[in-house]
Design goal:
The structure is a single chain. With 388 residues, the protein is an alpha/beta fold. The protein has a single domain, classed as 3-Layer(aba) Sandwich (Rossmann fold), CATH 3.40.50. 33% of the residues lie in helices and 18% in strands. It is built from 13 helices and 14 strands. A hairpin with a 3-residue loop joins strand 13 and strand 14. Helix 6 packs across helix 7 and helix 8 packs parallel to helix 9. It is globular. The chain starts with 17 loop residues before the first strand and ends with a strand.
Length: 388
Amino acid sequence: MSTRRFTDDLPDFEPAPIERDDNSSPLAARSPQGAGKQRGAGSGAHLPRTLTQVLNEANDKVVRGDLVDYVPMPTGFDPLDGFIGGGLRKTELVLLGGAQGIGKTIATLQIARNIAMRPDQYVFYLSYEHTETHLMHRLLCLESVNPPEIDINRGIKLRDLYQIIVAQRAKEFMGKENGLDSLQGILRENPKTSPALARMARYADRMILVKASPAVTTLRAIKEMTARLCDATGSNVALFVDYLQKVAVHPERPRDENDKVTMIVEGLKDIAMTLDVPVWSIVAADREGLKSKRIHLFHLRGSSALDYESDIAIIMNNKYQIMSKDHINFNPYTAKQFRDYVVWTIEKNRAGRAMQDMEFQLHGQHFAFDPRGQKVQQQLIDDKVIES
């Protein structure tokens, strides 16, 4: 079966010029003619309808076999999927917060990869922090350990990947090798990178990456690009934003950062609702949160709109740092094994139970979590105990 590209369904579409920054990274494509007709508006999503009309429309979709509104997109992380009703759902906004370096981007890119591996499911990943090439390198390292199997013995690190590429090209220049002058050729022929490249190829056509700019990539640009992808893929798109506070909001002029964050989170929720897609966004913690022993939802940088607008909010903390040292069963020697574990706490869950703690082991050098987690058994600070 041939792989469908998101441009294949747009025979009459003339690609608009792409604005680029000094590094020539794509930032924000201008919308096609008539892009102001957002998905949802054309279907009457903003027009008054009787309950009978709503029921008939939903009935027609079920008769056609269109069940996407009822089937979640699994993140591939267990027990997270179980706690949030099976995975990500259309129209929902999910926020992921935590301290710097805790693994927010690693988790987000891995979940995006897991969703993109589903046939006919596309992922739109906007990064204000990393270039598309760097994200590709991270994915190659992740694929080298092959989640969920997590074979660390065969894993490659970013440094290993760079050395393989540079060493092979050096051989070419010295005339010692022939036929491996391309990046794909090098990766395909090297026994350490070949399996990772093959795994990445399974979803490479369904993962769309953008190096976003806090000066150019506005909420409007994000919505227009996502709308175009929705039109090309039948709304089978999941949007990922890394990270929320860097989204540009001009020409609006927010009074302060709280006002800016309110605009952004309300805009992302609007994208989820009007375009009928799930939106996952990373959120940075504020200074007080970074100083605290354990970060919570109220420590995220910005306004209370983060709590109000989100459907699901997940906060990440290092397990060793938040284990209760006063617990009778606490053993400092045993506790050191948890330095590589990250506690994911569902602090808000509009459609299910909140304040659920689960843990996942982080393999930071390979940019991967072991998605086979479990509920936290130990007592954590804040006097929160999760029973097994």
